[in-house]
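Schema walk-through. Below, the input block comes first and the output block second. Nothing else is stored per chain. Lengths vary across the set, and this one has 48 residues.
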Amino acid sequence: MALFEPLSATLLGIVLFAEVPTVGITLGALVTLIGVFAVAMEKEHDDE
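--- output ---
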């Protein structure tokens, strides 16, 4: 659930203030989310 806060803040920034994140910010966020997802999936496999 904590990952939705930055996503919703970004969407509100785009809608309300017409602030679009740069390509670097977007790529960094994508890499971070992929890393979090990979760790979560690995942890799920370890619990089995």
